[in-house]
């Protein structure tokens, strides 16, 4: 296990940055052996930038509108990350589809978090999709990014119940609490060199699981 080395990471954001905040907090509490080298936002007034600045982290706005192609936009991100010696790219509420330009520069080194139990409810508004569909459980997924949309190898998932009275907002809040736990954990697995990927299946060396864990929603009454 690599104990003292801090993994240099680059974070991509577009919005509120609560996942970024959780990563920062876990680093500051000594639970996550990473160092944020730069936070890049494609949205100039993303609140995530303010969070980063409060912690004296380098930030940069790269507006996707300023580039003619997705590839050119990604090439600029790669240039910045490489010049900051970033080794792992962390997409934290980054609302752009990335291209092979970024993926080839960081093979199996781009992570994303998605607010659903993939492969259900890919794409935008995953929490609304879950409420509208009427599923009894939803959750969140940390995965490596591949060339598809929300389709890469899954590292960790967390499950939350969907309640009858849930709205998109209440479900999002329940899911977000779990996002803030599983994302730092997934990054820490990577830091510790415990993740391997084989035929899109991720293995976590010495990862613990309760194999008898079953959950029901609504609860069963005597069955
Ligand atoms: C999070 O719920 C994240 O899972 C989602 O955006 C939110 C960002 O919140 N990402 C996606 O939907 C990506 N397809 P945050 O800015 O507060 O971390």
UniProtKB/TrEMBL annotation:
Residues 10-187 form the Formyl transferase N-terminal domain. It is an enzyme of class 2 (transferase). The record marks 150 as: Raises pKa of active site His. (6R)-10-formyltetrahydrofolate binds at residues 70, 95-98, 112. Signal peptide: none annotated. It holds the Pfam family Formyl_trans_N. One of its GO terms (biological process) is 'de novo' IMP biosynthetic process. It comes from the Bacteria. Coiled coil: none annotated. It catalyses: N(1)-(5-phospho-beta-D-ribosyl)glycinamide + (6R)-10-formyltetrahydrofolate = N(2)-formyl-N(1)-(5-phospho-beta-D-ribosyl)glycinamide + (6S)-5,6,7,8-tetrahydrofolate + H(+). CDD domains: FMT_core_GART. One of its GO terms (molecular function) is phosphoribosylglycinamide formyltransferase activity. The active site is at 114 (proton donor). Keywords: Purine biosynthesis, Transferase. N(1)-(5-phospho-beta-D-ribosyl)glycinamide binds at residues 17-19. Catalyzes the transfer of a formyl group from 10-formyltetrahydrofolate to 5-phospho-ribosyl-glycinamide (GAR), producing 5-phospho-ribosyl-N-formylglycinamide (FGAR) and tetrahydrofolate. Belongs to the GART family. This is Phosphoribosylglycinamide formyltransferase. It comes from Syntrophus aciditrophicus (strain SB).
